[in-house]
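[INFO] parsing input record for Amidinotransferase
[DEBUG] input buffer:
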Amino acid sequence: MSVTPATPTPERTATPRHFLMCEPVHYTVSYEINPWMDVTRHTDAGLAVRQWRTLRDVYLDLGHTVETIDPVEGLPDMVYAANGATVVDGVVYSARFRYAERGPEGPAYQKWFADRGYVTHTASEINEGEGDLLVVGDVILAGTGFRTDQSAHEEAAGLFGREVVSLELVDPHYYHLDTALAVLSSDPADPQVAYYPPAFSDRSRELLERVFPDAIRATERDAVALGLNAVSDGKNVVVAPGAVDLAAALTERGWNPIPVDTSELLKGGGGAKCCTLEIRSAR
Ligand code: ARG
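[DEBUG] output buffer:
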């Protein structure tokens, strides 16, 4: 009888991260720009703030650095800091939002970076920051279809001098790439992602299968909890508690899933990753 040796669980390594977040003191749903948002539903800014602080404290306990930007009244979506910009090698590509309601957030985030001495570039093309531009190893995966224009992918490639791989999103519930795909390891030697296949066009799904043959395929149950909107430091993965299949797959493959409830922020269509902008300094 031959026994197939069990594949050893890989050893994962956490690296300290630098995050920018925005406390949701003005949180509400006052317009609808994605299918999760419903202006008739009650929202609780106090609860949103408590959940947000728990998320921030989890990052601090993991040893990460968290800076904050002052929330602006009348910009309730500013809590979704990931959309505010994309920062690679210390260079800031500003966001330019699809919808007028979020328009002023781009300059607000850009000013935060400029005031701190970062080189910032005002975007010519419509892009919603890390909502659609995800750094995985040496490449940038870029979403399009609902928010970020394809032309912004080229703009980002030119600015950052990195290969940008375009992915087409087809389900309005997963309107930003970071709602359909999570970066688990950004180590150029071992880039790893999890994603929800039905959120992508056939061509993009085939591309993902080719580039990431070992990726975790999330289930519908994971996706509807916005489980793909997760934040990984290479070992610890902050993830929505409802994403139980994803959490099990992560554990099996050597990651440490940390469930954090951001249910109040889900009413705006966002989760942990949406609230977290990563500042990547020059290597
Ligand atoms: N209400 C926001 C919008 O529709 C949610 C943004 C969520 N952010 C994200 N990174 N996916 O624009």
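[INFO] The two ends are 51 Å apart (CA to CA).
[INFO] shutting down worker
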